[in-house]
Specification:
This protein has 31 helices and no strands. With 673 residues, the chain is mainly alpha-helical. The protein starts with 25 loop residues before the first helix and ends with a helix.
Length: 673
């Protein structure tokens, strides 16, 4: 029997309540209620009322399960071995309840938003009453000494899990790592699988995905070997997502997915890992730009979350809704994107409260949707709420808060609010934590801002800092490094360093083809950079071939995808070089049509407007048509707040056009020139 709960006899079957003493009794309730009230937060009373009701329900379920197990054993309906497994399972649930109540008793205002999630993450009691599953499950510890060691490890693991789920990944890193060592020393493989999984979750939260991969793999294999199917399924789905999305190793991920499916079949229907696996497979299909398949997986995952018999929807449901919104956006369906994102945010707020730690990410995605709709003031309000919430939850100096500010800066940049984006970015310093991806993103954002301000030299220096000494895998995720190298090649072209740009673009193209295949839309970026380098060096036929391929691979998946913008821009430039203004007109107009679906990125609209005006002049179009185009481009440029390079480009071109077109120009042109 468990080290905590004694083997039962008739006299003890009614004494389950004694095991809750100090864990969930009147004294502990008073302690927790006092801690929540002392936070001084306006929603403290409501939080405590809801928390008490849910923990009362959990404790009641535990007591009923304990009594049923005890009486079944007493009546001879349950063997000693099965009863030991029931009690071991209930022992684990009691440890989870104790850890949760301990965290709640020490809660303060900054952590109060975590309360609902901590309770929601308590593992269900009913798995301890599933006798068929328990018969096939791993055996409890062999002796009292091992049982005590395992109980201590599990008690510490529950505390690590509670803090990690609240976002304090860095703070529990060393504890989680130490518990893996302790679990190895215990010699009890089920608890080793549990410790490995929790350590993987900490690494996942820190965005250290290459490091998390072998940890999740060992957790999966260890758990599967001892039939710890719950942990095997959870670790397996994380591994599939890690490999397929973060590390771009789709084939390996799909092989692992088949392994996970066999584990889920043993578990039977109703496990949340089913939905998590569908989400992972949807992400892999999305990465391959197979949007129809991705949507199918996400829709299946969504349906699975609706069929689960849980008190509250699992978090994976809300992320699936966000991912469905991503599919809509990729296919150019902005209303669908907005609806799916709004539904995710509304459900999270309804189920977990508006102050939950994870709400920031949903606010971010909703802000992006509002920017696409042109509702900039609404987006600002969402971003301000996100930043204030993050600061209150983590503190101004926490890296998690720094990431939140960085994300808000990106949304404002996308909206064309250059000065506001810069002001937020200036509040940041280079990340001081080991999340290498975050360090790369910091340099990339600085490079973007510098380019828009017209500082091309600084933009190149920043992107060189992002790539210096780093390789995909151990140093940074392949996806992030791919994006970084594409930008590096682009900026080298802007500096006229065409040979260097071409070499980098060719290497990036080989890497993308190796990772995703020769027909994946992600080849469009290195192909476009390679084409720009060839245009710069006068190899126009080669450039045309590269651009034709870049456009074709994207058009095959989504004819109005934003990834078409860069090759269309380069195609127009090539056409102007070759004296083919009608081709340039068609390319620029098509790009503006794609951008018209989004009420954002005014700097890109201004740039394409200028390109269209140049093509119109080259095609001999009349002055009124040219002026209508350039006026619209100027309006977009002026919508970019703060100093920006595109406004200067348009002004300079306009001055030249006035000089060559004569003095008979409209008053609007005189005013703007």
């Amino acid at each position: 029997a468990s080290a905590w709960l004694p083997a039962a006899d008739g006299a003890r079957c009614g004494g389950g309540a004694a095991h809750l003493a100090g864990i969930w009794d009147s004294a502990r309730k008073a302690e927790i209620g006092g801690a929540i009230a002392a936070s001084g937060v306006g929603y403290a009373e409501e939080t405590w009322t809801l928390a008490q009701r849910r923990l009362d329900s959990y404790a009641e379920q535990w007591l009923k399960a304990y009594n049923r197990a005890c009486l079944g054993h007493q009546a001879g309906d349950t063997s000693d071995e099965l009863y030991d497994r029931q009690i071991a399972c209930l022992d684990g649930r009691l440890l989870e309840l104790e850890a949760t109540s301990k965290v709640l008793a020490e809660i303060d205002a900054s952590a109060l938003p975590q309360v609902n999630e901590l309770i929601a993450l308590l593992p269900p009691i009913d798995t301890c009453t599933d006798t068929e599953a328990l018969r096939e499950r791993f055996a409890p510890p062999a002796d009292a000494r091992q049982a005590r060691a395992v109980d201590n490890i599990r008690r510490d693991l529950t505390e690590v899990r509670a803090k990690n789920n609240a976002g304090y990944h860095r703070e529990v890193h060393e504890d989680a790592k130490a518990l893996v060592l302790a679990a190895r020393e215990s010699g009890y493989r089920p608890v080793l699988a549990e410790a490995l999984y929790e350590y993987g979750e900490v690494l996942y939260g820190e965005h250290r995905h290459p490091e998390a991969e072998p940890i999740y793999l060992e957790a999966l294999l260890t758990a599967d070997g001892v039939r710890h199917d719950d942990i095997a399924a959870r670790a397996g789905t994380r591994l599939v997502f890690n490999l397929g999305w973060y590390q771009s190793r789709a084939e390996e991920a799909l092989i692992r997915a088949q392994h996970v499916r066999t584990i889920l079949e043993r578990l039977g229907p109703g496990h949340v890992a089913e939905a998590e696996l569908e989400n992972a497979l949807g992400a892999i299909a999305y990465a391959k730009a197979d949007y129809a398949e991705a949507r199918q997986h996400f829709e299946r995952g969504k349906a699975l979350t609706e069929s689960l018999t849980l008190e509250r929807p699992p978090w994976i449901r809300f992320f699936i809704l966000l991912n469905l919104g991503e599919i809509c956006e990729a296919q150019g369906d902005i209303p669908c994107m907005e609806q799916s994102t709004a539904k995710a945010l509304a459900e999270v707020e309804a189920e977990y409260g508006a102050d939950h730690p994870r709400i920031s990410y949903f606010l971010l995605r909703m802000a992006r949707a509002r920017v696409s709709q042109g509702r900039i003031d609404d987006a600002r309000a969402l971003l301000q709420r996100m930043i204030e919430h993050s600061a209150a939850t983590f503190g101004e100096d926490h890296p998690q808060h720094g990431m939140t500010v960085w994300q808000a800066s990106g949304v404002l940049l996308w909206a064309g609010k250059l000065a506001e984006s810069q002001a937020l970015f200036d509040r940041l310093g280079p990340p001081d934590d080991p999340k290498v991806d975050h360090d790369v993103w910091f340099h990339l954002r600085r490079s973007e801002l510098q380019e828009l301000h017209g500082d091309l030299k600084g933009a190149l220096t920043s992107v060189e800092a992002a790539t210096a000494g780093r390789e995909p895998g151990e140093d940074a995720s392949p996806r992030v490094m791919q994006m970084t190298r594409n930008r590096h090649s682009y900026l080298l072209n802007r500096h006229g360093r065409y040979a260097e740009a071409a070499a980098l673009a060719e290497a990036a193209l080989v890497e993308v083809e190796k990772t995703y295949g020769a027909d994946h839309p992600d080849i469009s970026a290195p192909l476009t950079n390679l084409a720009r380098a060839k245009i710069g060096s006068g190899e126009f036929d080669v450039a045309a071939d590269h651009l034709a391929r870049a456009l074709a691979v994207v058009e095959e998946r989504a004819p109005e995808h934003w990834k078409l913008l860069d090759p269309l821009e380069a195609k127009a430039e090539l056409a102007l070089e070759l004296g083919e203004p009608e081709v340039a007109l068609e390319a620029a107009r098509r790009a503006l049509k794609i951008l018209s679906k989004h009420a954002c990125v005014p700097h890109r609209k201004a740039s394409f407007g200028l390109q269209l005006a140049r093509a119109q002049v080259a095609a001999g179009r009349d002055r009124d048509e040219v002026m209508a185009t350039i006026d619209e481009a100027l309006a977009h440029a002026e919508a970019v707040d703060g100093a920006n390079a595109i406004k200067g480009k348009i002004d300079a071109w306009l001055a030249g056009y006035r000089a060559t077109a004569g003095a008979d120009l409209t008053p609007d042109l005189d005013a703007k020139g």
